[in-house]
Design goal:
It contains nine helices and seven strands. The chain has a seven-stranded parallel beta sheet with strand order 3-2-1-4-5-6-7, sandwiched between helices. Helix 4 packs parallel to helix 5 and helix 5 runs parallel beside helix 6. Helices cover 48% and strands 13% of the residues. It has a single domain, classed as NAD(P)-binding Rossmann-like Domain (Rossmann fold). With 274 residues, it is α/β, with parallel strands linked by helices. The chain binds NADP nicotinamide-adenine-dinucleotide phosphate. NADP nicotinamide-adenine-dinucleotide phosphate (NAP) binds next to helix 2. This is Dehydrogenase/reductase SDR family member 4. GO terms for molecular function: carbonyl reductase (NADPH) activity. Belongs to the short-chain dehydrogenases/reductases (SDR) family.
Length: 274
């Protein structure tokens, strides 16, 4: 019942938001968004396409890819999709090849996939969990960036966007390893900014606060948790995926032509740093 109401309000929010989008900053551009069949990734894919980009969707499950592609196509958007578990080298290779074949090149890479398979204190975590989180959240982000370069180098205004988290600045208590991995992404962005700038490529990060998606479901499903979470947010509500998507479109566009090496927090005023 609660889940149905949430889904309905998300849908309503999407419908209202898309009718108010007036910019077409991404006409002629091609984008890849990983993990884009639901949540933040799907919202970003939709927004980039609404602003004129051709967008390649992807995630691990074929049925999810098919559903997301159909949904966005039914809204008149130019999208295609392919299966890509970001941890699988062959599937990443195929993602870039399919993007080139379908859309002729690549201008925008949004590395959005991120996982958190375990909850618990930092010093209780085992090696397997550490490896899994770092493999997907950090190593695969790095590999995707590297593998995108041959296509991005041919673009007139290439840009990379990495999905970090506010937890990268202020670790969440029971999500410590996940938080450390998101801090590592801040470092990855800083460490590659100059090298990428030499190639004319901008790189920026987005650090969302609590956003209403499947990943954060535990935090809002029970009224008690929901109230506790909201107490730490100045705006006293969780964010919606579309409220991340607007920033992604801006960062990918030429409006952000002098912004690189930054990670921008979108958190409704959650405390994170001075
Ligand atoms: P979500 O709603 O749970 O969506 C997950 C998406 O990722 C689905 O499309 C899923 O599709 C795909 N996926 C999962 N594992 C994948 C993999 N290994 N390779 C490719 N695709 C994969 O998640 P979300 O909340 O939107 O999170 C998206 C990003 O935002 C993550 O990096 C997360 O850390 C970050 N973030 C989220 C929040 C938040 O509060 N929600 C806050 C800060 C940062 P399949 O099942 O088909 O693979």
């Amino acid at each position: 019942m609660l889940r149905t109401t949430i889904k309905q309000s998300v849908r309503q929010f999407n419908a209202n938001a898309s009718s108010s989008i007036k910019c077409h900053r991404l006409e002629g551009k091609v984008a890849i968004v990983t993990a884009s069949t639901e949540g933040i990734g799907l919202s970003i894919a939709r927004r980039l396409a609404q602003e004129g980009a051709k967008v390649m969707l992807s995630s691990r499950k074929e049925a999810n890819v098919k559903k997301a592609v159909e949904e966005l196509k039914s809204e008149g958007l130019q999208v295609a999709g392919t299966v890509c578990h970001v941890g699988k080298a062959e599937q990443r290779k195929n993602l870039f090849e399919k993007t080139k074949t379908n859309f002729g090149g690549l201008d925008i890479l949004v590395s959005n996939a991120g996982i958190n398979p375990a909850v618990g204190p930092a010093l209780d975590s085992d090696e397997e969990v550490w490896d899994k989180i770092f493999d997907i959240n950090v190593k695969c982000t790095y590999l995707l960036m590297k593998e995108s370069l041959p296509l991005l180098k041919c673009s007139k205004s290439p840009s990379i966007i990495i999905m970090s988290s506010i937890a990268g600045y202020q670790p969440y208590n029971l999500l410590s390893i996940y938080s450390i991995s998101k801090t590592a992404l801040l470092g990855l962005i800083k460490a590659t900014t100059s090298e990428l700038a030499d190639k004319g490529i901008r790189i920026n990060g987005i650090a969302p606060g609590m956003i209403r998606t499947k990943m954060s479901q535990l935090l809002y499903e029970s009224e008690e948790n929901h109230e506790l979470v909201k107490m730490n947010i100045s705006m006293r509500r969780l964010g919606m995926p579309d409220e991340i998507a607007g920033l992604a479109a801006f960062l990918a566009s030429d409006d952000a032509s002098y912004i690189t090496g930054e990670t921008i927090i979108v958190s409704g005023g959650t405390n994170s740093r001075l």
